[in-house]
Specification:
With 123 residues, the chain is an all-beta fold. It contains no helices and eleven strands. Strand 5 (46-51) and strand 6 form a beta hairpin. The model has no long low-confidence stretch (mean pLDDT 96).
């Protein structure tokens, strides 16, 4: 089992930045690919970004390329999502997730999920 806890959500003005963090616990957590998903009100959950176990393979959804950066620190069992140039359409609950497979675009989701962190971008 893997437990995931997100932090860093909040309210920011359009054009601003936020950094989400996720701490993982459990056995062999550093062997998992990690990802961030989001779900906006009335919309389906969608993948935002993912990173493989070593941090060398990255995946980004088209709508965040050039604005968001995913990274991980295996020494801290953590994964991060740096979000820049935020727009109101980025408002959503952001979920940290872990997968035992690297299969972008991760259409079937991942194995483990955090409870989510709310990000609100005001115009």
């Amino acid at each position: 089992q893997v437990q995931l806890v997100e932090s860093g959500g909040g309210v920011v003005q359009a054009g601003g930045s936020l950094r989400l963090s996720c701490v993982a616990s459990g056995r062999f957590v550093n062997n998992y690919a990690m990802g961030w998903y989001r779900q906006a009100p009335g919309k389906e959950r969608e993948i935002v970004a993912a990173v493989n176990w070593s941090g060398k393979r990255l995946y980004y959804a088209d709508f965040v390329k050039g604005r968001f950066t995913i990274s991980r620190d295996n020494a801290k069992n953590s994964v991060y999502l740096q979000m820049n140039s935020l727009i109101p359409e980025d408002t959503a609950v952001y979920y940290c997730a872990a997968s035992d497979l690297w299969v972008p675009p991760f259409s079937n989701g991942m194995n483990y999920w955090g409870k989510g962190a709310l990000v609100t971008v005001s115009s």
